[in-house]
Design a protein that fits this description.
It holds the Pfam family PAS_4. The protein has 691 residues and is of the alpha+beta class. 42% of the residues lie in helices and 25% in strands. Helix 23 links the parallel strand 25 and strand 26. Helix 14 packs across helix 15 and helix 16 runs parallel beside helix 18. The radius of gyration is 37 Å and the shape is flat. It starts with a helix and ends with a helix.
């Protein structure tokens, strides 16, 4: 009875071994039955093996030759045969080519299982992916070689010292710098190479190195064999072996000839070459120090992140050189606000950052207002006035973060909200401003699948006829509702789509769905309306753009006059190509409109040369109607100019009744904005399209 119970226990143990241990172990396990030949028949593979190979449960009972063909099968069988012949465990590695072109290195252990007669009846193969281990070994080998190369071939002198500061090794550059032979320097003190005034500082540097702290000394006077002193800089870097101090490296750079040049290089490294302002590198160095200073004193600090609105149009109009001249003019104005507690940095491009030390919330608001005030006056270039406005995002220490990167990131998120809400003002960071996506790489990955996963949609914003109150045209606006991260602002993903080239596929998707919507409305007996589609500059450069539009109009049976192609002045840089494309579009019969009109230098030239039907007044002018005499005058002038040229005018961003009244008085035909309606899905717009 006890024997029976032991057998049952052993049987249960076998089940546990197979179903739990073997199935869920990370290594791949193959059990082969040895037959005459010898040949080898699959009797078991675990879950890891099934996931990592093409071998399936239905292959159990088949021979190795039948399951694995080609060179890999022959190689593995050769190892199995070797095991049977030698009756000893075999360890071998093989390289497998993965579908993506990468290689995986496997290490396998073949173990013989003998029966009661001492004959090998089974072979157990345990295979492990050792690719990371092999890569690490290769990395370490490469690192050793690189280390040796860095030391031997470094242009700077490198000395290896023991814990007492005695020279144990020198590279070639060390001999060239000092003029001594290596044998003359080895076993002598490093202090003997330097002027006595350096000894105390050098001793302190070596002491720091012995505690694992690297340090740098500047302007150290080195004695050479010729007696001619050289000005050098020294770096003392600790050598730590198995977490124990084992001497240090002394890296010496000769600055004698290039001392003044290096001073200039240092200046250039921390200053922007165009404007002379501190640059991003300087900001990265200064901000942590200022944060620490504020922490020690219990004071607050503010980061003002400035971005110049629509500055691309300035570059498009004046060229990069002209744009640089404008940036210098802007810099001169911005620097008028700087002082000991207000430092200015050029972040890059058309972005600037103010650091306000010892700044309260109210003082920060005052400074932001002062910055906006600087831009109320125009910038005069080549006889043309340019009105440029900044958008400002603000973060505060310690309320919004405790380190420089976080503060800049939070200020950038606040800046993005300013851009989203109409530009030309400032906002403080709030927690709701956090971006849905952790970074642009993840956003790009999701955006590439947005069409396939049907995450994109189109909302339509009606354009109101101001004289009759009716609607016969809309603007199509794309929306993205990501399944994981939720709604994503077009201001986030459209620039990314343009940068990555995804805008072409997205643009064509919008075109087709707008044509499909127009067909649906027509088939239901609704009146014909016109829908405007935004075409990015990169789409406009496509040679097949006109053909693509024609194909979708024909496919869905849509009259060309129901479609409006909306372009920005940025799409008109290449005058010859622009004129050619616009003429083809006009021959096709679609309407052509110019978005953000009035923000670029060449606007009048475009009206003169290009076949344009509609002008859209930029919301930056509309927003200031009533409060800015100049914006009111510009808006009125645009309307009158368009009328005299036989063009329709649409005002964007209308949000207040006073703006509507002004536009009616100025005889503007149409307007769109939240005052009338936010962008909506087609089902919510049926009352506008009833016949």
């Amino acid at each position: 009875m006890q024997a029976l119970n032991r057998k049952q226990d052993n049987d249960r143990l076998d089940v546990v071994l197979k179903d739990v241990v073997l199935e869920y172990i990370n290594d791949m396990i193959f059990i082969m039955k040895v037959e005459e030949g010898p040949s080898f028949r699959y009797v078991y593979i675990n879950e890891s093996a099934r996931k990592s190979t093409d071998i399936k449960n239905e292959d159990m009972g088949r021979l190795l030759d039948e399951v694995l063909t080609g060179g890999l099968g022959s190689h593995i069988k050769e190892k199995y045969v070797q095991l049977v012949e030698n009756e000893e465990t075999i360890i071998f590695r093989d390289t497998v080519e993965l579908p993506g072109g990468e290689q995986m290195i496997n290490e396998s252990i073949l173990t013989p299982i003998k029966n009661e007669l001492g004959k090998i009846e089974y072979v157990v193969c345990i295979t492990r992916d050792v690719t990371p281990i092999m890569r690490e070994k290769k990395r370490l080998s490469n690192a050793r070689n690189r280390y040796k190369s860095i030391i031997e071939h470094n242009l700077d002198a490198i000395f290896i010292l023991d814990s007492n500061g005695v020279i144990k090794e020198s590279n070639i550059a060390g001999c060239q710098l000092t003029g001594y032979q290596k044998s003359q320097m080895v076993n002598s003190a490093i202090y003997d190479l330097f002027h006595s005034s350096v000894k105390k500082e050098l001793e302190e540097a070596l002491k720091k190195a012995s505690n694992g702290i690297p340090s740098t000394l500047e302007h150290c006077m080195l004695n050479t064999v010729t007696g001619k002193d050289k000005i050098t800089s020294i770096k003392a870097v600790p050598i730590v072996v198995e977490e124990k101090f084992d001497g240090c490296y002394i890296i010496i750079k000769d600055n004698t000839v290039s001392f003044e040049q290096n001073e200039m290089i240092h200046y250039m490294a921390l200053h922007d070459q165009l404007t002379g302002l501190w640059n991003r590198k300087a900001l990265d160095e200064h901000l942590p120090l200022f944060v620490q200073s504020m922490e020690d004193s219990g004071r607050e600090l503010s980061v003002l992140y400035l971005d110049l609105d629509r500055f691309k149009f300035v570059n498009d109009t004046l060229g990069l050189t002209g744009g640089d001249r404008v940036l210098n003019k802007i810099t001169k104005r911005l620097t008028t606000l700087t002082n000991d507690n207000c430092l200015l940095y050029r972040q890059g491009g058309d972005e600037f950052i103010y650091l306000l030390k010892n700044s309260s919330l109210e003082e920060t608001k005052e400074k932001a207002t002062e910055v906006l005030t600087l831009f109320q006056q125009s910038f005069l270039m080549e006889g043309q006035e340019f009105y440029i406005s900044p958008s400002i995002g603000i973060s505060r220490y310690p309320a919004d973060g405790f380190d420089g990167n976080t503060l800049i990131q939070k200020a950038a998120q606040a800046l993005f909200q300013v851009k989203e809400k109409g530009r030309a003002h400032y906002r403080f960071y709030q927690t709701y401003m956090e971006s849905s996506f952790p970074n642009y790489m993840i956003m790009e990955s999701h955006l590439r699948k947005a069409i396939e996963k049907e995450e994109l949609s189109i909302h339509y914003q009606p354009q109101i006829n101001l004289s009759s109150g009716t609607v016969d045209s809309f603007e199509a606006l794309i929306r993205w509702n990501n399944r994981k991260f939720g709604f994503v602002s077009p201001g986030q993903f459209i620039p990314l789509a343009e940068e990555t080239g995804l805008i072409h596929g997205i643009g064509e998707w919008v075109l087709e769905h707008v044509c499909l919507q127009l067909r649906n409305w027509r088939e239901r007996g609704n009146k014909d309306v016109r829908i405007a589609i935004n075409i990015s500059p990169k789409q406009f450069q496509q040679e097949q753009l006109v053909d693509t539009i024609r194909e979708y109009l024909d496919k869905y049976g849509i009259p060309a006059e129901c479609l409006e192609i909306e372009i920005t002045e940025g799409a008109m840089q290449d005058t010859q190509q622009t004129l050619s494309v616009l003429k083809k579009l006009k021959e096709l019969g679609v309407f052509i409109s110019v978005d953000d009109f009035g923000t670029g230098y060449s606007s009048l030239n475009y009206l003169k040369r290009f076949p344009i039907d509609i002008l859209k007044i930029d919301q930056s002018f509309v927003r200031e109607i009533g409060s800015s005499q100049k914006d009111s005058a510009i808006t009125t002038t645009i309307i009158h100019l368009a009328h005299s040229l036989g063009m329709e005018v649409i005002a964007e961003g209308v949000e207040e009744e006073g703006q509507v009244h002004f536009l009616k008085e100025a005889n503007c035909q149409k307007a769109q904005g939240f005052y009338f309606s936010k962008p909506k899905v087609p089902e919510e717009l049926e009352h506008y399209v009833y016949a």
